[in-house]
Each structure stands twice: as structure tokens, then as C-alpha cells.
Amino acid sequence: MEVLLSDPNLRAVLFNVFGGITRGDEVAHGILTALERLGTTLPIVVRLDGTNADEGRRILADAAPPNLHVEATMLGAAARVVELVDGSAA
Amino acid sequence: MPIIVTAETRLVVQGITGREGRFHTLRNRDYGTAVVAGVTPGKGGQDVGGVPVYDTVAEAVAEQDANTAMVFVPPRFAADAIYEAVDAGCGTIICITEGIPAHDMLRIYNYIRPRGVTMLGPNCPGALSPGIANVGIIPAQVFAAGRVGLVSRSGTLTYQIGKELADLGLGNSTIVGIGGDPIVGSSFIDILERFEADPGTDLIVMVGEIGGDEEEKAGAYIDEHVSKPVVAYIAGFQAPAGKTMGHAGAIISGSSGTAAGKQQALQARGIPVGDSPTAAARLAAERLG
Lengths: 90, 289
Prior knowledge:
By secondary structure, chain A is an alpha/beta fold.
């Protein structure tokens, strides 16, 4: 996230995770830690599925930072991030 | 009827006491897989959630009749673990470990093949026969039981297509991850041959990606030897040349190994190629009517 956010042209971040060995709860904690530490206000769209995905989505819903958008599907998440970026176009 | 991972599978997990080994062993057992033993040298006599741990695979085979080994051993020690499983008599070896040196795999490949051992991986998600057994890290809850065989170089893409198939009301006979490394134990052709022979499989979905020429070889094989319908998906149409994309084996070298080249080679053989996981699942549904 630090590397991504160092790009001044960045307008949004999309996480698309369908975890096998990757666990959804760990991804959720990682995203929240990154947001807390880096303090970005850019839109973050997250799609979580697979191993421990329910738990991960619950963790994100409980914390609910204002710039975090959780989507259920890959195509839904892609559409959402495009919409958010279009909406912010200068 | 499933392939590779079946009701007869009796699993020994090498590296069972590590963090990932323990977690996925217990998930596999909860799914219904007969997980009969684990191996970690020096930890014989312990247990992991009730699964007995042995010092050697030979002991696990002698005591628990294990016939399939799953390898969660770190890359530096994984080659030895695989030789040990072969020498102990395991006929099927599923290697999850990523990062095994290619030179180790060259030697392993030439050790397993003449001995008739079936190996999946390394760097693979394992195999799942829905409702019967799961060996590896595949999130089984997204797959339904059915008659579509799925073979893939990529874990996540497999999960995505499995979910899309399930959303369309289609299930799988077996999902087979062959792994994302340049040298793997089983090729697309090895698995296609088994799905062709499997009376429980009506259609095969093949999920390839950039790098190498296994998809092209599979296309030629399908043309001559596979009577069942096959549909494909190839990942990496936007991939730049000369860069590994997530897997060590996923790299376009010069002008070879591109997604477009693979798509053309397959389509020339009459094998439809979806341009997204969703499209590939729809092609499968159309073919099955």
C-alpha cells in the first residue's frame, strides 16, 4: 500500500482476493492496519472470497472506514472502482 | 467418479506441525478427507488435532496405510520430502510448497515418472473432489459436486471459475491444480488423459496462463485423443513480455508463451477459449446444454 500510495497519480485501490492459502481475516486486518498507518482518503474497494472470507468481511464491516467499499463479486468490485474514479474526475 | 483424490485416499501430511500445514490439514479433515498421519522429523509421537505425527513417511505408511502425501515442507527441504514419500510407497504426491529450485524439480521429475508416481505441483493448490475429499488449500465451499473436470495452472483462477460454474448450476467431478512452476509433476496432458478415462466427467475446463507451451501441446493432444468437449481460459492477455506474472512459470519469453498465441492455437483445434473466467464458465454451460 505504501508503494502504491507513493504514486501521485493514484486515484483508487482495488483489492481482489479469492483466497486459498491466503486467509480473508488476515487480509482484512492488513488492509485496516495499512489504512490506519498511512491515513489515505482515496477510495479503497475490496472484494474478498474464499478461505475465511466471511470473517474478513465481518472485520471490515465492523471497522467500516468511510473510504472503504466492500463488494461481493469481482465484476461488481471492478465496476465500483471505475465508478468511484469517474466520479472524482476533474 | 473422481480422479487423483478419491474415497480411497489416505493422506499423510509432510510438514504437518507448521502453521499452514496444521491449518489446512484440519480443514481437509473437516471436509471429510481421510487424513491418517502427519510427518515432521523429530516430532514423532505428537499429534495435530488428533492426527498422529511420525518421524518418517515410511512409519506413517506402515502404521496408517497412507497412500497419498501432501507436502507443506519449506522449499529448501521439499525435494528430500518428496523423495522420501516416493520411497515410502506413496503413489500420489501433492506438493503445495512454492519456491522449490527448478534444478531440484528436474531431478524429482525424472525420479517420479519412471516409478509411476502421480505428482501435482509444486506451487499448486492441490485437488478437490467435491463431496468426497479435499487435499490442499482449495476453498471447498465454493465448489459443487458434478460432472465438469477442471484442470488449472492457477489457484485463484480455479476458484473463480469453480464459483462461476456453481452459480450456473454446474458442479465438478474433480478440480486439479497442476501448479504454476516451470517444471511440474503433471502436465495438462496427464490430467486430460485421466478425465477422458473418467466416466464421471462429461466436459473438461482447462485454465492456462502465459508462459511455456503446455497449452499448445494440450491442444494437439485434445485434437487426437480427447472425445469429450473441452473449453479453455487463458490468463494474461495484458501481460508485458519478460516479466513473471505471479507464478515463476508465467513469463512471456520473446514472442512465445503469449495468451493470444495460446488462444489461437486452441481455437485452431476447435477448442473455444473464454476471454474471462465468467465467459469460460458460460461456454461450459452452453456445451453441456
